Amino acid sequence: MPASFRTWCTVSFSALRSNLRTLRRSAPRGTRVLAVVKDNAYGHGLVPVARALSRAGCEEFGVAFASEGAELRQAGIREPILILGSSLPPEFPTALTHRLTVTLSSLQEARELARAAEKARVTALVQAKLDTGMNRLGAKPTEFQHLLSFILHHPRLELAGTFTHLACAGSDPKFTRRQMEEAWILPTHPRRHYANTAAALSRLPYPHTHVRPGLGLYGLDPRPAGRAPLRPVLSWKSRILVVRRVRRGETVSYGATFRAPRDLMVATVATGYADGLPFSLGNCGHALVRGRLCPILGRVTMDMTLLDVTSLAAARRGEEVIWIGRSGTKNRTAADLAREAGTIPWEIFTRIAPRIPRLYS
Ligand SMILES: *Cc1c(COP(=O)(O)O)cnc(C)c1O
Q1: Ligand 1: distance of its center to the CA of 94 in Å?
Q2: Which residue from 64, 156, 233, 248 has the least number of CB within 10 angstroms?
Q3: Nearest to 159 by CA among 173, 170, 144
Q4: Does 36 contact ligand 1 (Cβ within 6 A)?
Q5: What was the pLDDT predicted at 4?
């Protein structure tokens, strides 16, 4: 990679394809994959990731909002694209122009969209969402039935499918069973889906036409003791800017929150919270340098972070630092960083700043 990069990510298409195959294998034969590429493909890069998945045979895509779908269409993606979020009326023209499928959670949304479709003299593709306990989007069962019948009787609305979303698919089988008992009213035609990564990998025994994985495609099994053979897709690297000796008793970084218990070698690394490295990793996170786990010392700053490199024989200015990825025999995942930062891997991925270059191979 160009030596001028201070911090950068690499994204492996072969790992992405391998994860797609793994997720396919855990679904019944014939189940199609709606790849969730919302929010810049979880920070991996919307268009490159969707193109790679499309070439690998992925049937459909899910985005967060209409403009992401438009970006995919402009990049030549022709598969069905479902807007997973709730769209506002000013976004309907974009959805209609680009043949994006709009998620409907209420009769109000359906009426608004029908009006926009009439005005544009087109038919809107829609999927009706049922709320089975997430209480975020979706209609409750009674309104859902009205919503379905409104859609089926409206000449400007075409029902492309129905779905629900699970709140604890990987962690709470009882809660999940209750959600799926409510979901029996979802028609199976033309599409019916409920399975995020955790549900897809758990092979839940409810009929569906599609699985809807996000995190699994990017290489992580979100289930507490999950061991699916997924491969990390993204690595996140940086470089050492400065190496210095810090004497016993001296402090490090803002707020002087770390005091050296003995003489230490400290490296200043070119990544900070403006790059998406969580501030909460201060004094508790780690990075890999030359295959060794090095602790973060003191607070993470805006574009630099300090590492204890005492265990390395002479760390050098310009040397590679791995936040996520492999170094020697050791590997760090977004889940490792998330645990240290007190967050979840989805947040680690999606907060890697857009300014950081992504290199695809
Ligand atoms: C984000 C999202 C998914 C993917 O979830 P993962 O846990 O990342 O697999 C699936 N369905 C909906 C509705 C989502 O919003």
Answers
A1: 23
A2: 248
A3: 144
A4: yes
A5: 76
Short-list 197, 194, 206, CA closest to 226: 197
The helix/strand/coil state of 137 is coil
The DSSP 8-state label assigned to residue 286 in this structure reads E
CA atoms of 298 and 285, how far apart (whole Å): 10
Query: What are the boundaries of each domain within the chain?
Result: 31-218, 234-360
pTM: 0.97
Letter for the amino acid at 194? Y
In angstroms, the CA 338 to CA 326 distance is 17
- Give Cβ neighbours of residue 201 (< 8 Å, ≥ 6 apart): 23, 26, 170, 216, 221, 223, 226, 228
Instruction: Identify the three-state secondary structure at position 9.
Output: strand
Question: What does the alpha-carbon distance between residue 164 and residue 181 come to, in Å, rounded to a whole number?
Answer: 12
DSSP H helices in 86-196: 92-97, 107-120, 141-153, 173-182
Q: Is ligand 1 within 6 A of the CB of residue 127?
A: no
Task: Give the tens place of pLDDT for each residue, 5-55.
Answer: 999 999 999 999 999 999 999 999 999 999 999 999 999 999 999 999 999
| pLDDT grade for 273, boundaries at 50, 70 and 90 | very high
What's the rounded Cα separation, in Å, for the pair 27 and 264?
Answer: 52
CA distances from 165 to 70, 142, 276, 338 (A): 24, 17, 28, 23
- Give me 55's structure tokens: 């070439």
Decide: 138 in ligand 1 pocket, CB within 6 A.
no
Instruction: Note the pLDDT tens digit of each residue in 287-331.
Output: 999 999 999 999 999 999 999 999 998 999 999 999 999 999 999
CATH architecture of the domain formed by 31-218: Alpha-Beta Barrel (3.20)
- Looking at residue 2, its pLDDT comes to 65
Fold of the 234-360 domain: Lyase, Ornithine Decarboxylase; Chain A, domain 1 (2.40.37)
Give how far the C-alpha of residue 331 lies from the chain's centroid of Cα atoms, to the nearest Å: 20
Angle, helix 13-25 to helix 46-55, in steps of 10 degrees: 60
**Distance from the CA of 249 to the center of ligand 1, in angstroms?**
48
